[in-house]
Amino acid sequence: MALARAREQLRKDDARRKIRLGGLVIKAGLDAESEAVVLGVLLDAVANLQGPNGSEARKLFQEVGSRALTQRETME
């Protein structure tokens, strides 16, 4: 019984995570793009993060993302 509850909680947590990530795609304004374009954007970002200037890219993405989240929260 406890194992079933643990599995159910893991499933709910996974679903919640996926919903939140989908919400970020929408907040970024990419919801009108094709899945291939969205995936391409994400793969390009990963390549930047893993590249030789990854720490600089991460810092820039963090700043831009934090600013966008803050602006949208105040508008909602």
Q: How would you explain this protein's 3D organization?
A:
By secondary structure, the protein is an all-alpha fold. The protein has two domains: 1-31; 33-76. The chain is built from three helices and no strands. The longest helix has 26 residues, at 2-27. It is extended. The model has no long low-confidence stretch (mean pLDDT 94).
Helical segment count: 3
> In this structure, how is the largest beta sheet organized?
none
Shape: extended
Poorly predicted residue ranges: none
Average pLDDT metric: 94
Work out the count of structural domains: 2
Helices and strands, in order, run as HHH
Query: Strand pairing plus helix content: what structural class?
Result: mainly alpha
How large a portion of the residues is in β-strands, by DSSP E? under 5%
Residues in helices, as a percent range: over 70%
Please tell me how large the radius of gyration is: 16 Å
Number of strands: 0
End-to-end separation in angstroms reads 41 Å
